[in-house]
Amino acid sequence: MRKIISFMHISLDGFVAGPNGEMDWIKVDEEIFDYVGNRIGEGDTALYGRVTYEMMEGYWPTAADSPTASKHDIEHSKWYSQVHKVVLSKTMKDAELNNTTIISDNLADHINEIKKQSGNDILLFGSPTATHSLIEQNLIDGYWLFVNPIILGQGIPLFKGITEKTKLKLLNSHQFTCGVTELNYTVD
């Protein structure tokens, strides 16, 4: 069965964004882009909440077309155009969306159906609200966290709505020269 892996930048104190959704504190560089690019290149399905999907859709389809496109922009734009996208949204309609499925109800049933299909891991990018919904229904199988060396003090937490202990097993970790530490966990 396929697994859902939550890919998220996080502050040391557990926030994925500032109080107003700010993400200007996230450190990224070519080393991280290359590392992430290798991993997501194995993925064939990307899972988003509506807000993150709209942000991605507003940039990645044409990112490679810019004359100043970076290597990362070109590679990720190509991957984004090929990957199947699943969006959790109660307001979006899927008419005319290319290679995209919208889930608006019966979340657990639809996600479990997707997990049963053949393919690779399903990568959940950002999307704190979608992540919270999936956490509440025990649908996340792993966490791929990029811990940034900053304490925000307040913001949108990664772990919200948890009522029971969830044991995790560390699969690996990686320290980047910019100070970010990657932690790759599976739900035990």
TrEMBL record:
Domain Bacterial bifunctional deaminase-reductase C-terminal: 2-180
Gene3D superfamilies per record: Dihydrofolate Reductase, subunit A
Domain of life: Bacteria
Protein name as it appears in the record: Dihydrofolate reductase family protein
